[in-house]
UniProtKB/TrEMBL annotation:
GO terms for molecular function: RNA binding. Gene3D superfamilies: paz domain. This is Protein argonaute-2. Coiled coil: none annotated. Residues 253-341 form the PAZ domain. InterPro entries: ArgoL1, Argonaute_N, PAZ_dom, PAZ_dom_sf.
Length: 342
């Protein structure tokens, strides 16, 4: 039933009280923040270069050189670029900072005779310069650098650049700042980690640990350029000492990986892609690329004129009886069609 009576008024004053001194400058306070001043020469005009990294790839039965700078592991790219600078650094005439993909920066222009030239290197499986001990496990890669644009920091300080152009200059500073830290830390994005303070992640998950590190990022403010620094944490898989089957179970929430569980296979692959594993029967080190959709008991191939499964081959050749013959096999990206039991 509706009422026509007016709402009851409160006995208190409903007016919101203003803060004392509202509208006037208060007492100045000194606030400690995790931002530090970054000094850059006002007239600096850095140069940005496009980087192409060519690596041998198998394409329909033939070997071709393909640009893998955007698809290969960043750690591999960086190691290759480091080997490039160690071998051909004097040809460029100045230092270069590389972002691990397809861009490099220099404080001035590099020697123009080095542009468009194919620089050939022989590297190992990790991208480091190959030695005499790496015979049979090394490969040739090639780099090509071409000039992309200039980065005028004077325009940044005078507010002449668009937001997009300003972000490119900030990205350049991030890459340059990362060069020193990345030399003795593991870089993940803008964070850097060291294993010295690693902490195990629980009793069940024995194959990974938490690492402490720091985060750094260049920022533009009204006062000029700043570096934001903060503490950072992440998890890493432990190096060695555990069978791959145990690591896969940890990555799959303690469950065995099943061939029919496509969702779990995709999830575990995203966590372990690029991980180095060692085959105990041969001593060969592979990088994990993915998993097969069938187990070693069901995958067959021709061996000495007869069809055998991977499980049977290991039993005959190495006297090894696979404990997880029904589990997916791991794929090796460097050898087409090469599968190994987990």
């Amino acid at each position: 039933m509706a009422s026509n009576s007016s709402p009851r008024k409160s006995g208190f004053n409903d007016k919101i009280m203003s803060r004392p001194g509202y509208g006037r400058a208060g007492k100045a306070l000194k606030i400690e923040a995790n931002f530090f001043e970054l000094t850059v020469p006002t007239r600096l005009r850095a140069s940005q270069y496009a980087v192409q990294l060519f690596r041998e790839k198998r394409d329909k039965g033939r070997t071709v050189y393909a640009d893998v700078s955007a698809t290969e592991l960043i750690s591999f790219n960086r190691n290759c670029f480091k080997a490039l600078l160690n071998k051909y650094g004097s040809d460029f005439g100045c230092r270069l900072a590389y972002n691990g993909r397809s861009i490099a920066y220099a404080p001035t222009e590099i020697n123009r005779r080095a542009l468009g030239v194919r620089f050939k290197l022989t590297v190992d499986g990790d991208g480091n310069a190959a030695s005499s001990r790496d015979r049979g496990k090394s490969e040739d890669v090639e780099f090509i650098l071409s000039h992309a644009k200039y980065l005028p920091y004077e325009d940044l300080f005078k507010g002449r650049l668009s937001t997009m152009a300003a972000s490119e200059l900030i990205a350049c500073l991030d890459v340059v700042l990362a060069q020193v830290a990345a030399a003795n830390h593991v870089q993940v994005g803008r964070s850097f980690y060291n294993h010295s303070n690693a902490t195990p992640l629980g009793r069940r998950n024995v194959t990974s640990s938490a690492w402490t590190g720091f985060y750094q990022s260049a920022r533009l403010s009204e006062k000029g350029l700043l570096v934001n620094m903060d503490e950072s944490f992440t998890a890493f898989w432990n190096r060695g000492g555990q069978p791959l089957s145990r690591l896969i179970m940890d990555a799959n929430d303690g469950q065995e990986l099943q061939c029919r569980d496509n969702r779990a296979i995709r999830n575990v692959t995203s966590k372990l892609r690029g991980l180095k594993v060692k085959a105990m029967h041969t001593g060969i080190v592979y990088r994990l690329h993915g998993f097969s959709d069938r187990g070693a008991d069901r995958i067959t191939f021709d061996s000495d004129g007869r069809r055998v499964s991977i499980s049977q081959y290991f039993s005959d050749q190495y006297n090894i009886h696979l404990r997880y013959g029904n589990a997916p096999c791991i794929k090796n990206p460097s050898e087409e069609g090469h599968l190994s039991p987990a």
